[in-house]
Amino acid sequence: MIEWFEKVKKYYLAGNYGTNEVNRFVELKKITSEQANEIFKAKEEQEEAEN
Q: pTM to 2 decimals?
């Protein structure tokens, strides 16, 4: 079984997916909106760490 959350998070943090793609996975019910928010928060933390 595909671990959608981990896969989407990995691709988003690497810059391969944007917010539209992450939100599309929510629409397709592959991840929850809470998981999407967690992914967005991880990106913010990643960007803060780089600065």
A: 0.90
